[in-house]
Every structure is written in structure tokens, then in C-alpha cells.
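Typical record was shown:
=====
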Amino acid sequence: MSGNNKNKEIPMRRLTMLFAAAFLLCGCDRDRRDDETPAPKATGGAADARSADQVSPGAPELRGDRAMHEDGTVDAAANDNRNRFEGTANDIRAAPGNHNDNVAGGNENASGQGGVGGTGPMPQTGGDPAFVHAAASANRLEIELGKMAFEKANDAAVRDFGRRMIDDHSKAQTELEGIVKDTDINLSSDLDAHHREMVDRLSRLSGVEFDREYISMMVEDHQKVIERFESQTRNGHVAALRDFASKTVATLREHRSAAEEIRAKLK
């Protein structure tokens, strides 16, 4: 009886081993097929650089320049969105100011003149143009009134003072014009309205009345010009104009002092 049982157990063990082997073979074959499955290919677009696990099932795949489903149909909505995106990107790239056109030509300031290291004139900045206009008009006034005093004054000191105004302010004007040539400041050749009024008023006077009025004008006008030159010395932007103001203001103070002495004697 025990011999028959042993004979029955042997076929059962063999059968169990066969089932186990078959199960293992199936598992190995399935793993092999998974290993042989090709990975998703990346195409030229930036959107196709996504890994396979980031692509949701049924999402359109970019093939060439079109988005297509797995069944080969074209995804019109995806293509339309992609076209709009690319069009916007092109518009941004083509917009003015999004590229540097000054690399080859060098930097330029807002006035269009050469920048640092360029050969163009110094740009006008701050109150420099206003100072140049005021200084030039003051020089022309002193020269014109000096000529008038040299010809019409009764007092010799007044005539001598007029001649000094012609000489000193002609030199100052020549120096100022030389500086302005290296800037983009426009230098007018006219007197301003206030100075023109002073010339007209003094031209109608003569004798002692002329002497007194002329010297009083010289004291008052030189005081205003001195204040303007002192401000330019502190606040000017163009170095050459600051130096000019600093150097010239000393002469202007001498003129004022001389005019004050003459005025005191004429009273």
C-alpha cells in the first residue's frame, strides 16, 4: 500500500514542478518584452523634450511640425495654439528695442552725440546752456555800453572804465566762444531783452546824467553776473565752462569794485 502511494506522489511532484517552471518562463518573457519596448523619440520642438511618463494617454504627439494623435489624425486645436505661440514669440523678437543696434557703433547719448570715448561734441547738460546764453549776452552788453561810455562820458574815469569793459569782456567773449565750439550748445549773437532795454535807455542820455546812469548800471549788472558765474562754478556740468566761470569771476569782482568807487565820486 505504501509503495502505491509513493508512485502517486512522484507524478504529482513532477506536475507541480512543471507548473512552476511554466510560470517562471511566462514572467521572464514578459520582462524581456518590456525591456525591448523602444523609448519615446524626441523631436526638434521644445515641447517634445518631455519624458514618456509626463505625456498623458491620448495626448497628441508632435510629428514634424504638426501635432497628431496615435491613430494618425491631426490635432487641430493643438496646432492652432502652437501657431499662435510661435507668432507671438516672433512679434516679441521683432519689437523695437529688443536687440542692441549700438554694439558696432558704440554708445550714444540722447542728443545723438558720441558717447564716452567718442569724437562728438560734449553734450549740453543741466544749466550750462542757460549760463552760456547769460554770459554771452552780458559780455556783449558790457562791450556795447563800454563803447558808448568811451564816446559820450564827461568824466575821464568813466571813459577809462568804458575802455576797460571793451577790452576785458571782448577777451572773455572770445574765450567763451572757443569753449562752446566743443559742445552742442547754440550760442546766440543777440542781446537778451533786458540788456537791449538797458542799451536803449542809456543811448537817450548824455553828460553827467549819462555818467551816473552808466556807472549805476555797471554796479548792478556786475553783481548779477557775479552771482551767475559763482553758481556755474559750483553747479556746472561741463568742466571747461566751470573753469571759465571760476577764472572770470575774479575779474568781474574787480569791475564791480571799480564801478562802486567811481559811483561814489560822482554823487
Summary: Residues 1-32 form one domain. Residues 2-36 form the longest helix (35 residues). Strands lie at 61-63, 66-68.
